[in-house]
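F.,

This is the one I mentioned.
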């Protein structure tokens, strides 16, 4: 798959001297959904703002659909739709006037049929003549998306699209993002909400302290870094893990009634057979067992806590 956005050696130092991005290299593939994860202040919004021409880079180059975002700003920006975190639209305007105006900003010829489709897809058509100020928070979010789509961009950035929205709107938005991807739009979303990345993304990028710690296919990432756990409910509680088992990755939980064995899901030798044999030899019986896999959330927390560097190696 070819790249639609190419980011090379991108750094940003704000006037305060704070370095928000450090030599970021990233190729975003045409037609993918890329989720950028990272703790508060990691640099996600700075990255998006540079690609969208809102913040100047200190170093490095970015092209969007072949256009340099500094030298060829207008052409690059016309390819991009941005859904920001905050609504900064004129509250006294109607929904229709707002999206029509947004389209005009990019020099696109009027196309009421296209704008109608966008509003209908976002369940906003009934509200087209309502003033923005009269809309609920969820509806205002939809207006932000409609504005971003008004000029038919090939690339859509969503900055924290579902922060503070209710479950229903979140599901609607996920559905809508998937439909957009099916229509060929490349989508980059930032989120704090790991379930969102797990649900939606083809690839995951993790940013921490201005560095792109990793970019990986979601399934590969989960397979590579995910651990599995085998949980055994013991017949009799244990006070401590017997010395004979000390070489295994075991933990006691639930006041000694549960034994948890963590193993690498990638290896063929899980060690489960050996564990069960040794438990049998020691006369430790269990009444139930089940295995589970780590979620993306656990993987992510582990990565950021590890500083990311080990994970990248
Ligand atoms: N105009 C600015 N001047 C100085 N520092 C800034 C400026 N804008 C952002 N920063 C700093 O750069 C860092 C990265 O901010 P950024 O908004 O890119 O992070 P983020 O990953 O998007 O975080 P969040 O999820 O909280 O929005 C933060 O420490 C922030 O305080």
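My design for it:
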């Amino acid at each position: 798959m070819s790249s639609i956005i190419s980011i090379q050696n991108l750094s940003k130092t704000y006037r305060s001297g704070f370095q928000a991005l450090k030599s970021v290299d990233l190729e975003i593939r045409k037609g993918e959904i890329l989720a950028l994860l990272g703790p508060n202040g990691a640099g996600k919004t700075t990255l998006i703002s540079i690609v969208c021409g809102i913040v100047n880079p200190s170093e490095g180059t970015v092209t969007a659909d072949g256009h340099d975002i500094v030298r060829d700003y207008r052409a690059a920006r016309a390819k991009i739709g941005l859904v920001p975190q905050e609504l900064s639209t004129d509250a006294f305007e109607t929904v229709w006037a707002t999206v029509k105006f947004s389209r005009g900003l990019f020099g696109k010829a009027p196309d009421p049929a296209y704008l109608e489709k966008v509003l209908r897809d976002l369940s906003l058509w009934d509200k087209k003549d309502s003033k923005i100020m009269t809309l609920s928070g969820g509806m205002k979010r939809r207006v932000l998306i409609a504005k971003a789509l008004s000029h038919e961009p090939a690339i859509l950035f969503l900055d924290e699209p579902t922060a503070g929205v209710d479950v229903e709107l979140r599901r609607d938005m996920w559905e809508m993002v998937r439909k957009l991807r099916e229509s060929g739009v490349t989508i980059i979303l930032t989120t704090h909400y790991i379930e969102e990345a797990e649900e939606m993304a083809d690839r995951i990028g993790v940013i921490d302290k201005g560095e792109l710690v990793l970019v990986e296919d979601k399934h590969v990432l989960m397979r590579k870094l995910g651990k599995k756990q085998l949980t055994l409910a013991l017949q009799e509680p244990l006070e401590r893990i017997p010395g004979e088992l000390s070489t295994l990755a075991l933990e006691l939980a639930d006041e000694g009634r549960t034994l948890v064995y963590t193993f690498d899901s990638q290896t063929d030798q899980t060690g489960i057979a050996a564990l069960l044999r040794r438990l049998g030899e020691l006369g430790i019986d269990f009444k139930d067992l089940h295995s589970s896999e780590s979620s993306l959330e656990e993987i992510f927390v582990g990565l950021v806590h590890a500083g990311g560097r080990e994970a990248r190696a």
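Residues 308-313 have pLDDT under 50 and may be disordered.

Talk soon.
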